Amino acid sequence: MQIIPAVDLLGTDATRLEQGDFNRELFRTPAEAYVAAVAATTPPLIHLVDLEGARSGKTRPEVIRNCVAAAGEIPLQVSGGIRTIETAEEILSIGASRVLIGTAAFRERSTLATFTERFGEQLAVTLDVRDGLINIAGWLDQTTLSVEDALEHCERSGAVRILGTAIDRDGTMAGPDLELYELLCSSSLKVIAAGGVRDQADVDALEAVGCEAAVMGRAFAQRILATP
């Protein structure tokens, strides 16, 4: 069971938001130094999210390139604003090992199959969930798509892996939404869990329901920055 630290980007800083709210920053610190500090703990992977890209739909390759360099030998999976095949290819070409899409996967349903055919294991689909519905565009837009329908769409489109986030738990240190992850793991997809993961007990609980990995954001930051 992998523990994957998260690094969220605003400007050229690493930050952490509570419940995805851009007005509720838990900390802010220079991104490259923070990525290097995270990489020094030798995680299997770093989860890098460009929050500005998620909001605007425009990726920032130079910022991501600098984070890739700061991570050294540690691979990165990158999310935020990746909405075309060309953009995904660019992000992979500058050193990311995996790209994640959410808005592109659900805004135009035919798009996801194109991504899965092109990228296979180098792609994961983000299922960002609030009140049982999928959210897109940096969690600012709520769709009418249920979790069950989203899972079916991912399976039919040939996706291999999903990253599910319980938005209301994100950045709260309240523990993961195990009911949500049980539902996600009832599919044929590999599942990475995010949102509220605090400690090894939470990781063990997620492993018990079938998750392959857990993303840890605020709890990991506390270890590195000694934040409250």
Could you give a quick summary of the protein structure above?
By secondary structure, this protein is α/β, with parallel strands linked by helices. The chain has helices at residues 31-39, 51-56, 61-71, 85-93, 103-107, 111-119, 147-156, 178-185, 200-209, 218-225; strands at 2-10, 13-18, 21-30, 46-50, 76-79, 98-101, 123-130, 133-136, 141-146, 161-166, 190-194, 213-216. Helix 8 links the parallel strand 10 and strand 11 (190-194).
Query: Remind me, CATH topology?
Result: TIM Barrel
Return the domain count: 1
Q: How far is the N terminus from the C terminus? A: 27 Å
Beta-strand content estimate: 25-35%
The named CATH superfamily: Aldolase class I
In spatial order, strands of the major sheet run: 1-4-5-6-7-10-11-12
Compute the CA-based radius of gyration.
16 Å
Oligomer: single chain
Number of strands: 12
Percent range of helical residues:
25-40%
- On the 0 to 100 scale, the average pLDDT is 94
As residue ranges, the low-confidence spans are: none
- What is the CATH architecture term? Alpha-Beta Barrel
By secondary-structure content and strand pairing, the structural class works out as alpha/beta
Could you characterize what this model shows?
The chain has 228 residues and is an alpha/beta fold. The chain has one domain: Alpha-Beta Barrel (TIM Barrel). It contains 10 helices and 12 strands. It has helices at 31-39, 51-56, 61-71, 85-93, 103-107, 111-119, 147-156, 178-185, 200-209, 218-225; strands at 2-10, 13-18, 21-30, 46-50, 76-79, 98-101, 123-130, 133-136, 141-146, 161-166, 190-194, 213-216. Helix 1 packs parallel to helix 3. The relative contact order is 0.15.
